[in-house]
């Protein structure tokens, strides 16, 4: 029992130290700890330093919800090359489930999403989460669900795509491939 407790303490200390080291080496807008969808686990986005990010505000009951399927395909095709897809469910446009378990079901069960989905949060206005505050300041806030923001690996360039831009469109795929070079 003592060995088990000691092991857990060492693992916890290691994780805390890793998180602090990670935060110290990340000096951009991704230095935030966000809760994952339907989980108590958090994700520090600094772990994706030097990788391009595709950040999307999502909703479970939108005409564009089917884009989850192509976002997943994009994720699977380019994840080994470094692309990180991050989904941010939001009810800012009144099309997200009230209960997080229902949001998770749409993402994980209905669409088989394996890329990181964060807990439901605001993506517009004063109460926007810190990621979308930054994206809004640098480009513009989402005008609807499934706005996509491609952030360069060095975090210096942000390309915004509106809801109508399909994840597997030539425009999006070309931008992703350029970001991965």
TrEMBL record:
The organism's place on the tree of life at top rank: Bacteria
Active-site residues per Swiss-Prot or TrEMBL entry: 62
Molecular function GO terms recorded: peroxidase activity
A GO biological-process term: cellular response to oxidative stress
SUPFAM superfamilies, A to Z: Thioredoxin-like (SSF52833)
Keyword entries, A-Z: Oxidoreductase, Peroxidase, Signal
Signal sequence range: 1-23
Family to which this protein belongs: Belongs to the glutathione peroxidase family.
Name assigned to this protein: Glutathione peroxidase
